[in-house]
Please model this.
Amino acid sequence: MVEQTRALGILEVRGMAALMGATDAMLKATEVRVCGRHAIGSGWVTVIIEGTVAAVDRAMAVGTSTAERYGEIISAEVVPRLEENAVQRMPHAAAAVTDAQVGPGALGLLETQGLAPLMVGADAMVKAAAVEIQGWTYIGGALSHVVVRGDVAAVHSAVEAGRRSAEEVGQVNSHIVIPQPIEGLAALLPPPVAAAPIAVGALGILETTGYVSAIAGSDVMVKTSEVELVRFSIGSGGRVVSLVTGALDDVRAATAAGAEAAAEAGEVNGVEVISRPDEQVMACFGGVETERAQDETLRALGLIETRSTVALVKAVDQMLKAADVEYEGSYKVGYFLTASVFRGDVRAVKVALEVGATTARQYGELVSAHLIPQPYAGLEARLLHQ
Amino acid sequence: MSAIGMIEVEGIAGIIVAGDTACKTAAVELLGWETIGGYTTIFFSGSVGDVAAALERGVEAAREVVDHVVGAPLNQPEAVCRGFVSSPIDRSLAVAPDALGLIEARGYGVHVFNNDQMVKTAPVQVRNVLTVHNRVVCTLIQGEVGAVRQAIDTARTYLGKNEFFMGTAVIPQPVPEILQTFGAGR
Model:
């Protein structure tokens, strides 16, 4: 019966704390269930609930007032009697089908602008109280969030500690503690941490906008001191994070030099060092990939990045025509950013980059054109493009 | 095929209109499209002359839908350039010969509500809803041309008041390829 006369409630907000808080409140308020969720970038996330008209109306009233407390409401609508064929081709339903379980305990969520403050915050959270990191993800517009679980008091103090630490190094968008999360909330949780906890020395975090500045910075980091590049991680809003580990002094020296190089090639958004990162934090953000590519080629690397596909393709075409360079691949960072990578001998790459930069500027915004004459071998295995 | 044409716009409605116009203007073949999170690009190939003509009219048509439009030809393109087409055209997709309506706005919630309203006011089918990040969402509807215009009117009445509304377009007789390119199957 409910299937035939189902009403929909649609709540779109900016930020995951607001969405999670509102969804929890809605599901607890009346007899409704989550039938879809969708994220469309820039931090805009939507949850769609269904039930009888009265139930959906009531739930939306509760949901919007909760969402207001934790973030910004983009839209809130009720469709009293849904035309099924209006929504059957819409992408939101697939994401709501999940085997995930909410599990026991309270949930705490910390949401920041950028990944560097999130990692610093997460580290503070697990050090402040007995909580476990559930996972992290991003929702566009450089907004990322991490979710922790534990008993109510522990989650409260962890979130408070995390917020304070993250605010010291960056911007906190929102945070929320849900003391007794309802089961239907599982559809909104980030994917669980897959890697095993790992102990490392210090952790260096270099956050940039764009792929080229991340590579330029990382190359200098691994050349400056005894550090190892753990991975590149994609935030959102065009952010790329490179993580290095090593002894504290080495990591400090590396990140300082790397930030300088990255700033020359593009934009730097954050540089942080965590002197003794918690094992859980490394498992969550560091991932662990042990395999390495062996036969590294140490030919010069040419990197070009634009805010336009037309400008990039036009540049790639002209670069290959102008010089004896080999096209290695491309990487789309998102948020308008896209980059291509070339190999060749230093002079050829240099010529190609000059041609590419000139061409790209004619068609769109050139972000970086960068030459690495002798890329460090440790960098090669971690590159993201194919 | 000795040339490739590329047209890039903000959002997605602009390249649908541009691609349709390009195909109608000259002997070009659609290759597919690509998004980098905010901007999308449509690719087509043909002789140098055909691509030049298709580009000119395609860019003009797109400018009627959106402000940010960039077009460029690749004459005798290097082979790797074709690799930038990340969403190739699905030629096996069965499509209807009906008129195509496009509704573009920032935000997902407004589209759910609006699609319900459109389907209630006119006999149109929602064929696909595309999101290209940076918040842009575009709904593709099909139906008899009068019905599509009626549905678009409804959409403009509701969405036009919304600060996130971007634009609409009606293509009375879309080329089948453009429907296949953007997943507007029956």
